[in-house]
Amino acid sequence: MTAPLSPLAFETLATLLKTKSGLIIGMDKLYLLETRLAGIVKREKLTDMNGLAERLRRPGSDALGRDVVEAMTTNESFFFRDDKPFLHFRNQALPRLVAARPAGSPLRVWSAASSSGQEAYSLAMIVAESGGVLGGRKVEIVGTDIARDQLARAREGIYSQFEVQRGLPVQMLMKYFKKDESNWRISDQIRGMAQFREFNLLSDLRSLGKFDIVFCRNVLIYFDQPTKARVLEAIAAIMPPDGMLYLGGAETVLGITGRFAPMPNERGVYGVVAGAAAAGSRLAAVG
Fold it and tell me: pTM score, two decimals?
């Protein structure tokens, strides 16, 4: 029988996760720690989670720490999740931004915490279907995550039968995927429209460049209020005045930052508040 997680061990794990990823773990999430980290405990031939925490306190444990962070921050992802943000992206965001931009200038879209790539590829399929609206304009889609194994999956573009059945319309499946033994491989056309990079949301976002549209959905719920504010302000700093931010249905900017405001009659869609980008840039420069 394994020993209960000691207060010191819990503090070690919680501090690592908050420092490296912004993830906040309370004592009420012990089951999550045990479930997500069981594989690492077994792989390292440790007796229990206390042994894992002790190993993490040793010098030279950076690689193990990365594995722990990746195991805890890998989030579920599926195609066209919740549907409405993607409808808004197709029917309103793209036409509006195309009309507002000089001919030939590309649009840039960021899928933050992109996991295994379904969100970024959902956006790519919409772009592929929107040729009439875009009129040849290039749309750059960038997916980022801190989990290397998920990024590798995204770049590969191979999904199980279960994964393609979750939210992916059958016409999209038949048009943009090919059967690959028991799995499905996304077409080179769609795969070539998205690039994936290892990146931590707590890092300096300015290195990613500017983005017209940002999908940062179901990410902020894992952060405390100061971290949410920091991330939102940094996002505002890399967006134009008419940029659009998409958050998850359970997330909001209200009471956290004045850099964004809800778009009228839209749930989970936010516009940049005038002057927010400049203020965010000054904040990032000071930080």
Answer: 0.81
